[in-house]
Amino acid sequence: MKKDKKLARVIAKIGSLKYSLNTDYFDFIINTIIGQMLSTKAATAISNRLYALCNDSITPQKISKLNIEKLRGIGLSSAKAQYISEFSGFICKNPNYFETINCYDDDAVIGELTKLKGLGMWSAKMYLIFVLNRLDILPYEDGAFMQSFKWLYSTNNIKKDNIIKICSAWKPYSSIASRYLYRALDEGLTKDKL
Predict the structure, then answer these.
(1) Which of 162, 160, 104 is nearest to 134 (CA)?
(2) DSSP states of 42-74 as a string?
(3) Domain 25-130, CATH 3.40.50.10140 — does that match?
(4) Which among 58, 155, 143 has a CA at the least distance from the CA of 178?
(5) Disulfide engineering: 49 pairs with which of 74, 118, 171, 189, CB 3.0-4.6 Å?
(6) Which of residues 188 and 37 earns the better pLDDT score?
(7) Other C-beta atoms within 10 Å of 25: how many?
(8) Cα(43)–Cα(38) distance, rounded to whole angstroms?
(9) 47 contacts: CB under 8 Å, gap ≥ 6
(10) Which pLDDT belongs to residue 194?
């Protein structure tokens, strides 16, 4: 709060952050793949259909039994259906994958996740923030983050270098600051001037 007066105003409005972490690593990644480039409403609808196909419990084994046509039938693109199918097969063969990578440092986790088809930098950063609770991740690839950033700093300059420069004041708690921006958006604060 001392380093960033604008962010301090957001923190003062929201107060203490309370959040829980997603502990179902596989489920998180599947839903991350589903949600890429989709509205929350569309992603939720597709996820709900996938849960229904899997009897309300998404597991690598259950998804591996579904063919691409079944996955396409719930509204997934061909590419996402393929990514989900391949990822499920990969986890079936590597059941300790998450336990292994969760011990790695941030860059190594990103490196491992982005080796997998369908997972890029955005997906890896979401995993670091919302699953592993890593405290210094700056998710400038995320649309919701960008929307709040533009509001907070009254800027349309959303070039990576500019964001990194402005947000350097947040270190080593970039993830916490980002969570405040997400919360500001969720609570409708970004509709009004700060």
Answers:
(1) 104
(2) HHHHHHHHHHHHTTT---HHHHHTS-HHHHHHT
(3) no
(4) 143
(5) 74
(6) 188
(7) 17
(8) 6
(9) 31, 34, 35
(10) 78
CA geometry: angle 141, 135, 140, nearest 5 deg: 10
| pTM, full prediction | 0.93
Which SS3 state, helix, strand or coil, does residue 151 take? helix
Residue 161 phi, psi (nearest 5): -60, -40
As a whole number, mean pLDDT of residues 114-118 equals 96
Could you give the CA distance from residue 32 to residue 142 in angstroms, rounded to a whole number? 12
H or E stretch covering 86: helix 78-93
* Whole-angstrom distance, CA of residue 105 vs CA of residue 103: 7
**Token output for 166:** 């402005």
Cβ distance 14 to 187 under 8 Å?
Answer: yes
Q: Provide the token pair at 22.
A: 């997603």
In whole angstroms, what is the distance from residue 22 CA to residue 171 CA? 24
Residue showing tokens 């292994």: 100
In terms of C-beta density within 10 A (0-12 exposed, 13-18 middle, 19 or more buried), how is residue 78 classed?
exposed
What ranges do the domains of the chain cover? Answer: 5-18+138-191, 25-130
